Amino acid sequence: MRQDSRLSRMLHVLIHMGRHDGAMTSEMIAQMLDANPVVIRRTMAGLRDEGYVSSVKGHGGGWTLARPLEELTLLDIYRAVGEPSIFAVGPAYDMPGCPIEQAVNGTLTDVFNEAEDLLRKRFAGVTLADIANGFQGSSEQDGGQRCTP
């Protein structure tokens, strides 16, 4: 099953933006992530709608942080990118009338919901500044440059 990397990719972008002097265009971000600028604009629009980034059109325009990294949590960005599924496993609904399948599904659903709640609480306690401060690197070296995946 293919993993959903939207959260990771947007965290990556936002930390670069926090270290970059000036706006970053969709094309710059797309080149950095080896992605299509249209997809970048669509995703960034969701972050803009939540007030995490702002955009300016035209020459000299682009995307900038609307809030400092210290005020953005993993939970904020997770929600802004559409709350992608955390688990690749889930209940089966092959025999909905079977009481054993119902018991298994009920238990799995409860356990997954509890685990998701714990993860969301942990996400809420980690800021993007925590991540940005957790590695060595200067803003001149990483601001908007293509990173090696």
Automatic annotation (TrEMBL):
Pfam family, one: Rrf2
Name recorded for this polypeptide: Rrf2 family protein
Any one cellular-component term (Gene Ontology): cytosol
Originating organism: Rhizobium soli
Matches recorded under SUPFAM superfamilies: Winged helix' DNA-binding domain
Highest rank taxon of the organism: Bacteria
Signal sequence segment: none
Gene3D superfamilies in alphabetical order: Winged helix-like DNA-binding domain superfamily/Winged helix DNA-binding domain (1.10.10.10)
Entry GO MF terms: DNA-binding transcription factor activity
